[in-house]
Amino acid sequence: MKTITFNFNHPVKGNVILSPLNCIGGLCLRMKVESSKDNLLKIPVNDCNEGKWKLLLDWEYDGRIFSHQEDFEITKKPSVV
After folding, report:
1. Which of 8, 31, 11, 27 is nearest to 19 (CA)?
2. Alpha-carbon span 39 to 20, nearest angstrom
3. What is the value of pTM for the model shown?
4. What is the pLDDT, as a whole number, of residue 36?
């Protein structure tokens, strides 16, 4: 399974939106996420097609709201010859 992993110093429970960078509206993948007991948050990206994507993560902790945004790229694995 392909994932993007974050290591937090506190528990995280929130929402993720994944959207292609070259897309105007439309296709977005939305999911609720929660970190594991060791505060690792693994976001599955198996459903993302090849290309450049934007990740938007929102969560609340200790009465404060946080947001993180980053771009990433899904590439084909090179074939073994």
Report:
1. 27
2. 27
3. 0.84
4. 96
Per-residue pLDDT of the chain (81 residues; tens, 9 = 90+): 899 999 999 999 999 999 998 766 667 899 999 999 999 999 999 888 888 999 999 999 999 999 999 999 998 776 666
Run of H or E residues at 5 = strand 3-7
Tell me the residue type at 44.
P
Distance of alpha carbon 49 from alpha carbon 41, whole angstroms = 21
Dihedral, CA atoms, 59, 19, 26, 30, nearest 10 degrees? -40
* Lookup: tokens for 69: 């945004």
Domain ranges of the chain: 1-45
Residues 6+ apart with CB under 8 A from 63: none
Given a contact cutoff of 8 angstroms between Cβ atoms, the answer to whether 16 and 7 are in contact is no
CA atoms within 13 A on the CB side of 36: 8
